[in-house]
Amino acid sequence: DPTHHCLPVINGRGPVPPDAFTGEITVCDERGAVRYLACDSSAAYAQAGWRVVRHLVMLGERALVVFDDIEAPVSGGPGEVVSWFQCGAPTQGLAGGRGIRVCGRQSELLMRFHGPRDCRVNRLPERTLHDTHWGYHFAACRWFPVTVTYRAEAPLLTVIAVGGAAPEVSCRTRASSARFAVAAGPDLSVAF
Prior knowledge:
Layout: E1 9-10, E2 24-31, E3 34-40, E4 51-59, E5 63-71, E6 73-74, E7 77-78, E8 80-87, E9 91-93, E10 99-103, E11 108-114, E12 120-123, E13 144-151, E14 156-162, E15 168-173, E16 178-185, E17 188-191
Antiparallel strand pairs: 1-8, 2-3, 3-4, 4-5, 5-14, 6-7, 8-13, 9-10, 10-11, 11-14, 12-13, 15-16, 16-17
């Protein structure tokens, strides 16, 4: 179930349950405190013409950048994407509606969403962990889902930062392309 595993649901479809692994790690690299991985999951969605690539970049201990490059055309234009995020503590909305704060007992995370113009962030009620086969409910874990819904007209860039200081993000989105840059310090940056 993609809603349990932070996977995108595209035009109402999650990845097809595989007989074998269908995602392909296309890049895995490390340079200093910057770690980068890209996974092409297009085949897992079993839909001709779709591109589903997730890039994960760790900027030291300052931030995790998740870049979802999804192309899912439907008749009439770009398809709808619902990206799921599972938070382990209560959440609060941020001003402007394009981010959340995850309020843990000992620290907090800021999650900010950039890219598509029509991006909508939805904080869902706490879910029980007793409806799954996982053992998390024995460890006093909590589960607060967040969804980000948008049209796949531009990639979704999610920046997750520990504590109150969010990295600097610059975005330029046009009808045909989007460019993003994230900087969490002089030697900690990435651009797409």
